[in-house]
Amino acid sequence: MPPNDQPPPDEVRDQLDQLRQAIDAIDHDMVALLKERQEQVDKVLQLKKTHGLSVYHPAREENLISEKRRIGRAVGLDTDYLEDIFRRILRQSRVEQTAQLSRRGSRPGAIVLVVGGQGAMGDYLSGWFGQAGYRVRCLDRDDWSQAATLCRGIDLALISVPIESTSAVARRLGPYLPATCVLTDVTSVKQQPLEAMLEAHPGPVIGLHPLFGPATTTLDKQVVVATPGRDRPACQWLLDQFADWGAIVLTTRAEDHDDIMGIVQALRHFATFIFGRFLYEQRVRLDEALEFSSPIYRLEFGMVGRLFAQDARLYSEIIFASPERRSLLKKYLASAQTNLDLIANDDRTGFEDQFRRIAEWFDPFSRQALRESTYLIDKLIERF
Q: What's the average model confidence in pLDDT over 76-81?
């Protein structure tokens, strides 16, 4: 074998050139096939638009992925590699479909009033409704003198204001609303706002919680939680609209929503805040910490940095939203305090005993957690 710094013999170069040309030809065919596939996807989209069908079919996608893994295994391909490719293709198809369907309104010509439309989330949702062909109006803090005019003939009133203001705004808005108008909000707490909207408006009422922020570029697979209040059938077109945009709409009771959001949002954000605060107090050199971090630890640091890159008021609203949430956080801190004895007494056996008990409780989720986190780590390695 020639040394690495020597050019290969002519016959080897010729073989390499032939092989590379064959690979280039295959790549060209792959691009042509992707174009042909997209043409078929466009035909599917036209059928869905004609018959009002949703874009995302989880069962079909999972069946398709399973079949591609089976075929890949049979021909000796890496099944994870194959799944990664097809999930990317499927997502691109969904995004393109939802981008086109976003221009279709579930209730064409309806008038939407966004209360707080100059705020980040209100402006964001106004854009989506406007793009879908709705007539959008905005009522902000300086527009209340025009409230009667702005509410005239509206089909939807969407409240997008800070959590602590939502109930008061609902009560103030109620007298101006047409009887058939749907009243909704988009706050991350649902019980109190829903009760206030039901008291303020005798017509259709539903609470919404979009689990995404105004920086989201696509609603593909984004989750919207709906908490029914009154006259669910009259509100269905609104839920259908979010589904047309590619979102997954989950329906639950307001009490159940608030309980689980205490864990999913408030507790997680507060725990991240505590971690970030400790790093700040210790004046940890983040550049060095990142340099010595494996991808999983870099990802954890990234989530802390992501929190502190955003608006402090948004997170204070979420964390301090209700007495129930504050009570939950007190329990969390009390639980953390009980672990001090393990550290003070160098109680490794006690730690391991607790670890095993908790691991047993986590067991149904652990394999899924390993699989999902490994995927994220691999993606992080690819990007950085």
A: 90
Q: 251 — phi, psi (to 5°)?
A: -110, 130
pLDDT band at 259 (very low <50, low <70, confident <90, very high): very high
pTM of the model: 0.73
* Residues 6+ away with beta carbon under 8 Å from 22: none
Q: Exposed, middle or buried, 257 (CB in 10 Å: 0-12/13-18/19+)?
A: buried
Q: Which domains does the chain carry?
A: 15-101 (1.20.59.10), 111-252 (3.40.50.720), 257-383 (1.10.3660.10)
* Interatomic CA distance for residues 166 and 162, integer angstroms: 6
Q: SS3 of 54, please? A: coil
Q: What is the average per-residue pLDDT within 361-375?
A: 87
- Measure the CA–CA gap between 84 and 91, rounded to whole angstroms: 11
Q: How far is residue 210's CA from residue 268's CA, in Å, rounded to a whole number?
A: 17
Q: Write out the DSSP string of 111-124.
A: EEEEETTTSHHHHH
Average pLDDT, integer, range 193-197? 97
